Each structure stands twice: as C-alpha cells, then as structure tokens.
C-alpha cells in the first residue's frame, strides 16, 4: 500500500470518527434537557429526586422462586425539553430504557419500558401514594404489573416490581436497592 493511500485511509477513518462523535453530541443535545419544562410544577415533578447516576443491587425472582442477586447501573436524566424523564438501566439481562412523559391534559406521568435484550415492552401510569411513586400497567402479554419507588432519599432508593397473580394478589418479582454515585 502506498504511503499516500495509507494516509487517505487513515484520514477518512478520522473524519468518520469525528463525524460519529459530532452526531452523538448533536443527538444528546437534542434529547437531554437541563431543567424541567415550565409546564410541570415542582409538585408534579415526582421523578426529580431520581435524576443522576445510581449503582443498584438487583434481586430477581427465578423460575424456582428463589432470588438471584446482580449488580447494575441506573441513569436518569430530563429529556424532550424537560417534559420527560428517561432512564437507562444496565444489568445482566437488562439493557433498556424507560421514557416517562408528562401528560399535560391529565397532569400525570406515563411510563414506557423497553428492553431489547428480552423484548419487554411495558406501559404504566404513575400515581403518588404518600411519598411512594406507584407505577401501574401491563406487560406486553397483558399481565398487570406494579412498580414502586419508595424510601427515596438523596442517596438511596428502594424499587419493587410486582406482578398480579390470577387470584388478584401481587407477587414480588424483583427489587432494586439504589445508591447514588
């Protein structure tokens, strides 16, 4: 390979890398918001305490009914002009995102969870129960689910994921213990 051809190949690779970095930066600037939308009051900003980076211990129910413990990371940020709070959840068997959008008509939050690792697609609505953030909805298969953020402090939180059984009772399927980085 001639020196000129090698230099051309190297320069094209550098231009592609810069372009990819610029595209990623432009996407992040378009997606991430610095503050909540003025359309959302402080009282309605229920996910504000979760913004930031968290290390998480996850306990997941196995098919045998025992719990498997893994470690994960959970990142929360304001997105879409401050009208949404989006997360990225990274752990074994999970690499997905929830998009929580504020509905200005109902003054409530809607949650959509996507996990391309498992194909999960869950839709929930948020309500407050005291200091607890309760998210209820259905999995893609129609099964009722309930996810609750509770015991939220500046440094920790406890999240539980429950599924409704045929008799109407709820069973703990997973729980996460978050610690702020």
Widest sheet, order of strands:
1-2-3-4-5-6-7-8-9-10
Strand content: over 45%
Largest sheet: 10 strands, antiparallel, barrel
Query: How many angstroms separate the termini?
Result: 49 Å
Number of helices: 1
Number of strands: 10
Overall geometry comes to globular
Percent of residues in helices: 10-25%
Structural class determined from secondary elements? alpha+beta
**What's the average pLDDT?**
92
Sequence stretches where pLDDT stays below 50 over 5 or more residues: none
- Which H/E pattern describes the elements? HEEEEEEEEEE
Rg over CA atoms, rounded to whole Å, is: 20 Å
Describe this structure in words.
The chain is globular, with a radius of gyration of 20 Å. The chain starts with a helix and ends with a strand. It has a 10-stranded antiparallel beta barrel. It has 1 helix and 10 strands, in the order H-E-E-E-E-E-E-E-E-E-E. 19% of the residues are buried. It has one helix spanning 3-31, and strands at residues 52-61, 67-79, 84-91, 94-103, 108-115, 120-129, 132-138, 144-150, 156-164, 170-180. The longest helix is centred in the N-terminal third of the chain and has 29 residues, at 3-31. The mean pLDDT is 92. With 181 residues, the protein is α+β, with helices and mostly antiparallel strands. Helix content is 16%, strand content 51%.
């Amino acid at each position: 390979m001639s020196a000129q051809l090698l230099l051309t190949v190297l320069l094209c690779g550098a231009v592609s890398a810069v372009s990819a970095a610029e595209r990623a930066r432009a996407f992040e600037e378009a997606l991430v918001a610095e503050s909540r939308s003025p359309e959302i009051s402080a009282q309605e900003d229920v996910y504000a305490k979760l913004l930031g980076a968290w290390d998480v211990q996850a306990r997941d129910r196995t098919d045998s009914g025992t719990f498997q413990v893994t470690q994960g990371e959970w990142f929360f940020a304001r997105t879409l002009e401050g009208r949404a709070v989006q997360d990225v959840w990274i752990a074994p068997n999970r690499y997905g995102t929830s998009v929580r959008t504020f509905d200005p008509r109902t003054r409530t939050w809607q949650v959509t969870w996507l996990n391309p690792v498992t194909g999960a697609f869950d839709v929930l609505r948020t309500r407050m129960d005291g200091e607890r953030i309760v998210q209820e909805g259905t999995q893609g298969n129609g099964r009722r689910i309930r996810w609750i953020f509770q015991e939220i402090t500046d440094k920790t939180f406890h999240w539980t994921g429950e599924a409704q059984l045929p008799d109407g009772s709820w069973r703990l399927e997973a729980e996460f213990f978050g610690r702020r980085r």
